[in-house]
Amino acid sequence: MINEKYDISEMKEKIEGFPDQIMTSWEKGLSLRKEREPANLVVTGMGGSAIAGDLLNDLLFQDIEIPIIVNRGYELPLFVNEQTLLLVSSYSGNTEETIQSFQDGLKRKATIVVFTSNGEIERIAENERLQVIKLPEGYPPRSALGFSFFSMLGLIKKFFEISMGNKDIENLILNLTKLRNKLARSPNEITELAEKVEEHIPLIHITRRLKSVALRWQTQLNENSKTFAHINVIPEANHNEIVGLEFPREMIKKMQLIFLRTENYENEQVAKRFPIAEDILRGSLGGITTIKAEGDNKLEDMFSLIYKGDFLSFYLSSLLGVDPTPVKRIDLLKKRLKN
After folding, report:
1. 93 plus 135 within the same structural domain
2. Active site residue: 167, 239, 328, 335, which one?
């Protein structure tokens, strides 16, 4: 039974507030000054501060002519130079990997824009007189996705001729507000999915064109629900993993396969693969559930699925009796690294 008493730090309130992060962040991105035309775009960050880069890469796959690379780690790729637009993303401003890659970008004379709420990264940016998008304080990084993603999207709109504009942002907010009203009340398709996943390992499949959304589902289940999850993409999973979902049989029976479906990202052949794979795998797994995007375009499809995944992570944490906000093992690891 779902019991919200475990949500001591009010994660559900932050999830419900996601649509309210969008417009102001988009406008902040549009307000930045355009500098020299870049040859490539790199987003450097970790965890909840990096996922915006993955989402941008999928959203703009056929809408932008330069490569978008997401860098998770201490070092930047060799190609980064004065022709690179480097987006430094660290919500806390104190992520050690991002600080080091930021300093590397400064040495290579990249055009740098910083997205942070505070910390050492903000201090360095101010000393270097860089453009900074100041994110509101008081959020876990994973709950600040609307602030980081839409300010980055606004910035990209300023630099490049992408198809999205103010009307698309307004329509997305309306779409997510309607979806919030549905998902915030129990029961719904996501509370029902949480009950299926409670005693199973979630296995998430999605079209390759939208892998970033599956990654968001995975990391939200990891951090909010303290639950292991595995992801794969179609068609690649049809060339290997579909065979592996046989042994060990007792373990495979403990898996709940979740298909994330989206008309705006699936081509005709990819769309055919989901029902065929479901038919082949039905007897092997603990269950198979399809969750569909609710949108009229790529932006709405992307964020309707993200929103459903965020709510799933919250409802599952309630079923498991854990506060979704604390990430004690991450805190412990960071403490030991410092010592």
Report:
1. yes
2. 239
